[in-house]
Amino acid sequence: MTAAELINYLIPPLKLTDDGNKAIVWMEELRTNQLPVVEKGKFLGLISEDVILENNDATKPIREYDLFAEDCFIFEDQHFYDVIKMAHEHEVQLVSVLGRNGNFLGVVTIEDTISSFAQSMAVQEPGAILIVSMNYRDYSLAEISRIVEGENAKILSSCITNDYMDASRIKLTLKVNQPDISHISASIERFGYKVIGKFQEIEIKSNDQDRYDMLMKYLNI
Prior knowledge:
Layout: H1 20-30, E1 34-39, E2 42-48, H2 49-55, E3 73-75, H3 80-90, E4 94-98, E5 104-109, H4 110-118, H5 121-124, E6 128-135, H6 141-149, E7 155-162, E8 169-176, H7 182-190, E9 194-199, H8 207-219
Parallel strand pairs: 3-4
Antiparallel strand pairs: 1-2, 4-5, 6-8, 6-9, 7-8
Protein name: Cbs domain containing protein
Organism: Roseivirga echinicomitans
């Protein structure tokens, strides 16, 4: 999914001639504390509620406040992963989206981005999650996919993070389409990888449920 598909058109940009009062009212209505500032189609940066309140004068025009995150933008055809990366780098709630001609198109909120990711097949499809630790030089998604597919399963998504305890190692998070991953985990470890986390979607029956099932079986005899 691209950034253009995630634009939230309910969040309007402010102009330099708007004042702080207007910005505060919009922020309260939209339940955000940041808004984009645009002039003649060009993105100038974000303004925050804190900056306006710290000035103790909300009647001043936006041009008299300090803007920030002037380079917090991505282009319309970039992947929504880039939205998350940009928001993290600038520690903001909104990321501006520009057309390839440089004109401002709108903003994407982190909330909308997370919601979109949550609706993806990788999240919605039933299955289980494994976290595998390995040396970075040993990483091969093709080999790991072959191991997983050898157990009649498919990888729905994968994600790599650094191991902060060892700079030479990484953690690979896999979402597979099978709820029981005991065989998959064992196969991965046989090939020299270390499984450090497993999250399975297995329904575990309680003792009471077992007793109930035995009673029903007895009554059916």
